[in-house]
Design brief:
Blueprint: H1 9-15, E1 34-39, H2 54-57, H3 59-72, E2 80-85, E3 101-111, E4 114-116, E5 119-121, E6 128-130, E7 137-139, E8 142-153
Antiparallel strand pairs: 1-2, 2-8, 3-6, 3-8, 4-5, 4-7
Helix pairs in contact: 1-3
């Protein structure tokens, strides 16, 4: 589903004010990309503290992501949202997530397509639903700019 890029302007404004640090726990990273997880419910325990510390650390961003969730996937009950910044990942199949996910990219960038089952998908302001535990996938090289993405999942 194509989403009007104006819907993302408030989130991009908030993201311009913070630094998302490199995630050392993401196994399939292919570069210097960064990610942070938001969510609700008790779906996964992390080694250090609450599963979703970002909810309270970045409440305005969390609120904005929930607003976008209602536009991008209003009829689905995803419990976790991963926010990525310039995150390229190697070819992989998800090991933990066993259900469908929805991915969408936004920002000012070139490249960074989501390749699923050897099919290149331009997800810039265009959401796609797929099962990452069944379909091999990766993010192609980001050639220029700031690429953000949201992954809605039940991981």
């Amino acid at each position: 589903m194509i989403i009007d890029e104006d819907e993302f302007k408030p989130l991009l404004e908030l993201l311009s004010k913070i630094t998302i640090y490199k995630s050392w726990t993401r196994q399939h990273s292919a570069g210097a990309g960064r990610s942070i997880s938001f969510g609700y419910g008790n779906i996964r325990k992390q080694k250090h503290g609450s599963p979703f510390q970002a909810n309270t650390k970045y409440p305005e961003i969390y609120k904005e992501i929930l607003r976008l969730r209602e536009i991008i996937c209003p009829n689905d009950n995803y419990k976790m949202i991963v926010l990525n910044h310039n995150f390229e990942c190697k070819l992989h199949i998800d090991g933990v997530n066993s259900t469908d996910s929805i991915a969408i990219a936004f920002g000012d960038f070139i490249g960074g397509s989501l390749v699923i089952d050897d099919i290149e998908n331009d997800i810039k302001y265009n959401s796609i639903q797929f099962n990452g535990s069944k379909s091999p996938h990766y993010v192609s090289k980001i050639l220029w700019g700031d690429r953000y993405s949201l992954i809605f999942t039940n991981n």
